[in-house]
Automatic annotation (TrEMBL):
Name this polypeptide is given: Methyl-galactoside transport system permease protein
Family matches, as CDD domains: TM_PBP1_transp_AraH_like
Transmembrane feature ranges: 12-32, 53-83, 103-128, 135-153, 185-204, 271-302, 314-332
Species this chain originates from: Paenibacillus tundrae
Pfam families the UniProt entry points to: BPD_transp_2
Record has Cell membrane as a keyword: yes
Length: 339
């Protein structure tokens, strides 16, 4: 009986390890500085993590299929620049498009998301139709997208100047709040991230596309045999991931109030790391939306919390690296045990 209880406890801890680590991190930082538990601190962490969460959810679609997408960060930079370039105030001295009329704010946002979707579509076609390994395919598009973005960013009259002077009706999306009274508020960008996460949860768990995604990642040959149109599903999944990167780029521009062609640099590695730490298997076929969100929050707590208590950024990198290696090692052990 005792052995059975011990096994049940081990299984419970293993299934919820990510959430236990997150709680322990918060407790540890709060012990060092109790002010960390203030509502304003939690709000700031959530606000800073919101765009990362959306990007990580996009990366999760690809990781679950057994692939990897290295183009995410550069897509974020492209869509941030494209949307920001069309949303500057008339009075700004160095407008990207001096003669552009003031567009309805939803139009540049839509253009940015579609640009991300287009890159994802190209990735999906290269992987699914040309049978190029995802790592190589997305490495190529990562470089190409950065070059394309840099050419756009360097056009006259901008000539590679940081894009600023963004309209308030756009930046409010990234920095505005819903006032709850009593000194409490919820950022709009957090609500957007929660809404996107809910949609992704529905896709993962309640749609045929989600079931096919897990089947492809679990065993692509079995997926073929069972009648799943693997190529079509991969193209759709890569396109969805690209659209999420695009949304993340647009929101990052709104949150920071500007954009350059270097926005999003290395975001793909943060997204992949958050997914892996959150339980998305590097072998494919395994992953959940709550796990991804918890992985993003862990890195958000590390970045914000350790800075909050005065720990050097270099130590933060070491801690993040150790967590990533431990998570991958744990995932590989589970995969080997399963085989």
């Amino acid at each position: 009986m005792n052995t059975q209880v011990v096994n049940q406890v081990k299984q419970y801890v293993a299934q919820r390890a990510i959430f236990i680590v997150l709680i322990l991190l918060v407790i540890g930082i709060a012990i060092a500085d109790p002010n960390f538990l203030a509502f304003s601190t939690l709000r700031d962490i959530l606000q800073q993590s919101s765009t990362r969460a959306i990007i990580a959810l996009g990366a999760a679609f690809i990781l679950i299929t057994g692939g990897v997408d290295l183009s995410a960060g550069r897509v974020v930079g492209l869509t941030a620049v494209v949307s920001a370039s069309m949303l500057q105030i008339d009075e700004y001295a160095n407008r990207f498009f001096p003669d552009l009329v003031q567009l309805w704010v939803a139009v540049p946002i839509f253009v940015g998301i579609v640009a991300g979707l287009a890159v994802g579509l190209v990735n999906g076609i290269i992987v699914a139709k040309l049978h190029v390994p995802p790592f190589i395919a997305t490495l190529g598009t990562m470089v190409a997208v950065y070059g394309l973005n840099s050419i756009y960013f360097d056009t006259e009259p901008n000539q590679s100047q940081p894009i600023g002077g963004l309209r308030p009706d756009f930046t409010v999306i990234g920095s505005g709040y819903i006032d709850l009274g009593g000194g409490y508020s919820i950022p709009y960008i957090v609500l957007i991230a929660i809404f996107v996460a809910l949609i992704c949860w529905v896709v993962f768990n309640k749609t045929r596309l989600g079931k096919n995604m897990y089947a492809i990642g679990g065993n692509i040959q079995a997926a073929h045999v069972s009648g799943i149109h693997v190529a079509r599903n991969l193209v759709v999944l890569y396109a969805i991931a690209g659209a999420l990167y695009g949304l993340g780029g647009v929101l990052e521009a709104a949150r920071t109030g500007g954009a350059t062609n270097n926005y999003g640099n290395m975001y793909e590695l943060d997204a992949i790391a958050a997914c892996v730490v959150g339980g998305v298997s590097t072998a494919g076929g395994i992953g959940t939306v709550p796990g991804v969100m918890a992985g993003v929050l862990i890195f958000g707590v590390i970045n914000y919390g350790l800075t909050f208590i005065g720990i050097s950024p270099y130590w933060q990198l070491i801690i993040k690296g150790l967590i990533i290696v431990a998570a991958v090692a744990f995932d590989i052990r589970k995969y080997m045990a399963k085989k």
